[in-house]
């Protein structure tokens, strides 16, 4: 009987992108979420870096979340297609204290939608993170404006986050994973181990490249 229950357990490997302008706090959000750490002094990510978060989603579901921290891709041009490949979700991050980083959000979303899609052709689920809310005296004062912006640009939702004060980081991640799981039928990983192995191999290659930078 025990053997039967083990076979019913579903395991997923989800590749999730974390993208946005330089210095918006992408690395800080990942470090806070995966390791519960915060530092003021992360070096700028060059190319691609990633971290793994293992989530016991429920009694029958294990989710391995592979968070890809992507920066400086303007320098690589077409390389982004490789980084985005097989991603099933994304966070786009901006810094609430720097308006220009919000203005760049539409560009990032368009870039994302043009380079990766779900198996059924739909855009991958994306969540907008308004980061560094601890540095703003009042919260984003026009939430209706933000809600409308998300509808227009195709974001599922937006969250005010602070990696420093650990505000809404777990909540935003849980929301994204829920939506990724809802797209279960559009995901290749469960039916085909080949995709999973290939993704892992690509990951190892990317990690070794990131390490040598």
Automatic annotation (TrEMBL):
Keyword Lipoprotein among UniProt keywords: yes
Membrane-related topology note: Lipid-anchor
Can you say where in the cell this protein is located?
A: Endomembrane system; Membrane
Q: PROSITE patterns recorded for this chain?
A: RAB, RAS
> Which keywords has UniProt assigned to this entry?
GTP-binding, Lipoprotein, Membrane, Nucleotide-binding, Prenylation
Q: Which domain of life is it from?
A: Eukaryota
Q: What Pfam families does the annotation carry?
A: Ras (PF00071)
InterPro entries in the cross-refs: P-loop_NTPase (IPR027417), Rab29/Rab38/Rab32 (IPR030697), Small_GTP-bd (IPR005225), Small_GTPase (IPR001806)
What is the annotated role of this protein in its UniProt record? The small GTPases Rab are key regulators in vesicle trafficking.
| Similarity annotation | Belongs to the small GTPase superfamily. Rab family.
Q: What is this protein called?
A: Ras-related protein Rab
Task: Name the source organism.
Answer: Characodon lateralis
